[in-house]
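Our consortium's second objective concerns turning raw sequence data into structural hypotheses that experimental partners can test. To show how far this objective has progressed, the report includes one record in full. It was chosen at random from the queue rather than selected for favorable results. The single chain below, 252 residues long, was entered without modification.
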Amino acid sequence: MAAATKTKIVLHCLEKSRAQRTVWLLEELNIDYELKTYKRVNRLAPSELKEVHPTGKSPIITVQAEGEAEPLVLAESGLITEYLVDHFGPHLTPTRYQNGKEGQVQGETEEWMRYRYYMHSSEGSLMAFLTIGIVLDVIRSGAPFFIKPITNAIARNIESFFLNPTLESHYGFLETQIKTAPNGGGYLCGSKLTAADIMEEFPLEFAKTRPGFTEQSYPQLWAYVNRLEATESYKRAIQKITDAEGKNKASL
């Protein structure tokens, strides 16, 4: 594992963004880092972020090891999470192989397969569909009044026939996954917190603000999110974000 004390880490954090979970990860890893925050401009990231990475998105981290002339610049939540965990937090990854099946096809543990799935699905599936909901909200609110009946009807049809059933399917799957988690459960991959939980918390926190995801419909999943938000590292992360940018709320 890398020596965190000899590595300079800077997290470039857009307000009310996915960077929240990277702050949480860094707090969970208990390593030193610098937090640079950026204000949104008309809901979007400011141009200053493009000076750090060409995409201008958040989160972005720079990692500079002792003796290196230039920092490594990383974008995308999944890549950032995997890189930090590889070097500073292997305890946040489940054991990969079953005993006696090291390196074999289908030799992986259920915990590790779940881990790999959720490292990708949180952004590739759940958050993508939640984002569609935000786009539909913008279409509703931003359309000129004389065409609002048309745009509202289009948005309702997309929600009724595609978006809502898709989100219900995802929530139902996650509810079952929590119920059937290995080793007594509690978390997505088993009885211990992993980086996959940190990745999945943000879209689920955001889902709490949207129609369709309720404690009554998904009690196990709702309790799981509350359990994540009760961890000390999560609380420290939210406090750090709040101190830096004011009231915190999960957003795009």
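The partners drew two points from this record. The CA atoms of residues 133 and 163 lie 7 Å apart. The beta strands are 7-14, 34-38, 60-65, 72-75. Both points have been shared with the crystallography group to help prioritize constructs.
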